[in-house]
Amino acid sequence: MPILHIKGLKKAFRGVAAVAGVDLTVEDNQIYSVIGPNGAGKTTLFNLISGYHTCDRGHVYFKGQEITGLPPEKIVGIGIGRSFQVTSIFPGLTVLENIRSTVLVTGKKGFSLFSQASKLGTKDSEETLSLVELLDKRNEPAGVLSAGDRKKLELGIVLATKPKLLLLDEPTCGMSTAETGSTIQMIRKIAQEMSLTVLFTEHKMDMVFNVSSYISVMNFGTIIASGRPEEIRNNQQVQEVYFGGAYAS
């Protein structure tokens, strides 16, 4: 059974189809990318999967269970974590506090007369920060982090929800070449260590072809091609629509 199955998904805004009948199947433990030009419908697709938009037609199944139309908090609760293009963190809190707030909510750990608020969830939070390579910055205000480290912190916040399927919307946006390279290795390592399935969008093609086990290409709200990286790289329609011939063999 695939971990994610999408059938006939459609969403239009003011009569314009953003997602126009998408079928998609993601197998367990894949690192799967969805690519395409700006406006192709990738982020809308992620919003439909994660409950931030309701679809006009179609179905979304997670581990065989239909989740179409569920609100975001329910979808997080069943094991789907989501990051966004625009980083969403609490800049006034420390790096550790950003993670710990999610750990406490996810684990439903409350305050008691016999515990100190500052210690609740610290061990789990530090383990998560170690995964995203921010443990040495745990006491820094999140607002002073570099753009790359902010993306890592957001990834840590998502990981703190204990997902089985991780949706990453442009996880290396704003990162330098060096940061992008280390993030590729980090995502691959986290997916392996936590037995995670990863579905992501990305514009940096070197990263896509380096880390993906399977790729789908969107254009004008539809998927025009799906396959392994070498198949996508050599697909003539993909080259014409998206790559402009840059990845021709």
From TrEMBL:
GO molecular function: ATP binding; ATP hydrolysis activity; L-isoleucine transmembrane transporter activity; L-phenylalanine transmembrane transporter activity; L-valine transmembrane transporter activity
One BP term from GO: L-valine import across plasma membrane
GO cellular component assignments: plasma membrane
Alphabetized SMART domains for the sequence: AAA
Gene3D superfamilies named among the record's database cross-references: P-loop containing nucleotide triphosphate hydrolases
CDD domains (UniProt xref): ABC_Mj1267_LivG_branched
UniProt KW Flavoprotein keyword: no
Protein name: ABC transporter ATP-binding protein
Alphabetical keyword list: ATP-binding, Nucleotide-binding, Transport
ABC transporter domain residues: 4-245
Species: Desulfomonile tiedjei
PANTHER family cross-referenced by the UniProt entry: AMINO ACID ABC TRANSPORTER ATP-BINDING PROTEIN, CONSERVED COMPONENT OF ABC TRANSPORTER FOR NATURAL AMINO ACIDS-RELATED
Nucleotide-binding as UniProt keyword: yes
